[in-house]
């Protein structure tokens, strides 16, 4: 015996509106799966937002606006991150080695301070 899954319309779904009690946003969806996904994603968004301070929120929003307006950029950034991760390359500068790659005091005569004679 086989059973055929019922469609959302056959099980009483026409549409449902989710209204967030925290921020008031409303989302209307037409399937139960879409409703569950909407509630979950919105809840996750609140969780992330609550963990950020105002500066981090501004930065995240700026980055998202840039990336979401250019899907090709998002794909390339993810590919770059994956390549960096696989090759062990990161965005961290090399470790400081005194005398090799660190700034040194300028000992030229133009850097000396004039001293008054006593």
Please estimate the helix content. Answer: 40-55%
The gross shape turns out to be elongated
Order of helices and strands: EEHHH
Radius of gyration over all CA atoms, rounded: 28 Å
Largest sheet: 2 strands, antiparallel
Distance between the termini: 109 Å
Q: Which parts are unreliable, with pLDDT below 50 for 5 consecutive residues or more?
A: 110-115
Number of strands: 2
Derived from helix and strand composition plus strand pairing, the structural class reads: mainly alpha
Largest sheet strand order = 1-2
Q: What percentage of amino acids are in beta strands? A: 5-15%
Overall pLDDT level:
79
Tally the helices.
3
Pfam families: DUF6237
InterPro entries: DUF6237
Give the SSE layout:
Blueprint: E1 16-19, E2 26-29, H1 32-51, H2 54-68, H3 71-87
Antiparallel strand pairs: 1-2
Region (Disordered): 85-118
Pfam families: DUF6237
Biased composition (Polar residues): 101-118
Account of the 3D structure:
The protein is mostly helical. Among the domains are: 13-51; 53-90. Helix content is 44%, strand content 7%. It has helices at residues 32-51, 54-68, 71-87; strands spanning 16-19, 26-29. Strands 1-2 form a two-stranded antiparallel ribbon. Strand 1 (16-19) and strand 2 form a beta hairpin. It starts with 15 loop residues before the first strand and ends in a 31-residue tail after the last helix.
């Amino acid at each position: 015996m086989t059973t055929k899954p019922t469609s959302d319309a056959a099980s009483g779904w026409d549409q449902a509106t989710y209204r967030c009690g925290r921020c008031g946003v409303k989302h209307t969806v037409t399937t139960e799966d879409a409703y569950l996904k909407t509630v979950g994603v919105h809840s996750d968004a609140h969780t992330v937002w609550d963990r950020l301070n105002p500066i981090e929120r501004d930065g995240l929003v700026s980055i998202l606006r840039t990336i979401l307006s250019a899907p090709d950029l998002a794909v390339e950034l993810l590919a770059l991150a994956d390549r960096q991760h696989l090759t062990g390359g990161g965005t961290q500068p090399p470790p400081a080695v005194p005398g090799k790659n660190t700034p040194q005091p300028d000992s030229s005569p133009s850097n000396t301070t004039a001293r008054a004679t006593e």
